[in-house]
Amino acid sequence: MSSVQLIVTPLTLSFQAPLLHPQKRLITLLNPSDKTVIYRIHMTNDTDYSAEPSTGRIEPFDTTELTVTLSPVKEDLPGCLVDVRSIPEDMIDGANEEDWNSSDVKIELDPKKTPRQGDETLRMRLQPQDLAQIFEKHCQPVCTKCTQMCAKSTTSHLWRNRLTYFLVVLGVGLAAYLSYGALLNFKSEPVF
């Protein structure tokens, strides 16, 4: 094992449920030494996770960032351990696996943003018909009289907004036309 060790932050990556879309997290590697360091990334689960770039070099007193991507999964968070291995560039020739330094990064679900069982607002597998039922439940009118009043007010708001927009555009156009005409008249008059 070499004396040059990369500083890896963070040592725990947290992903948020639901896991139905790709999620990316950053790992920062810092080289605090005066030697160039070569690194490579090993993952215990490379089917659900990927790291880019998986190999590279870091100049003395420099940093680089890695992106760890979780592919969409339908079940729980798949287990994985990210192993960041590094060695000084001058020791790479003839180096054994024991010569490489290693830092492990854990992957977990974010405990603050994990849905709780039975909480309706945080359900993980909502279907379109579920959303329609929730919307209908919260947006049903109390009586038919309310429905008619709501429809009338919506229609009047639309016409009022359209009329206001038209008048504003007409006013701006008229002001531009008049100011342009005044500018032309001002330029055409001789100045003594």
Topology:
Blueprint: E1 7-9, E2 12-15, E3 23-30, E4 37-43, E5 49-52, E6 55-58, E7 63-70, E8 81-88, E9 101-109, H1 128-138, H2 144-188
Parallel strand pairs: 2-9
Antiparallel strand pairs: 1-3, 3-7, 4-6, 4-8, 5-7, 8-9
Protein name: MSP domain-containing protein
Keywords: Membrane, Transmembrane, Transmembrane helix
Pfam family, one: Motile_Sperm
Spatial separation of the terminal alpha carbons: 90 Å
How many β-strands, per DSSP? 9
Query: Which blocks of ≥5 consecutive residues have pLDDT under 50?
Result: 116-124
What is the correct CATH architecture of the domain at 7-113?
Sandwich
- Count helical runs: 2
Strand order of the largest sheet: 2-9-8-4-6
Q: Major sheet: size, sense and barrel closure?
A: 5 strands, mixed
CATH topology of the domain at 7-113: the name is Immunoglobulin-like
Q: Give the structural class.
A: alpha+beta
Radius of gyration: 32 Å
CATH class of the domain at 7-113: Mainly Beta
Shape: elongated
Mean pLDDT comes to 77
Q: Give the strand content.
A: 25-35%
Order of helices and strands: EEEEEEEEEHH
Question: Quick one: CATH superfamily of the domain at 7-113?
Answer: Immunoglobulins
Helix content: 25-40%
Pfam families: Motile_Sperm
Transmembrane segments: 163-183
Protein name: MSP domain-containing protein
Keywords: Membrane, Transmembrane, Transmembrane helix
Can you offer a commentary on this structure?
29% of the residues lie in helices and 29% in strands. It is an alpha+beta fold. The strands form 2 sheets. The chain has a 5-stranded mixed beta sheet with strand order 2-9-8-4-6, with no helix packed on it. The radius of gyration is 32 Å and the shape is elongated. Residues 116-124 have low confidence and may be disordered.
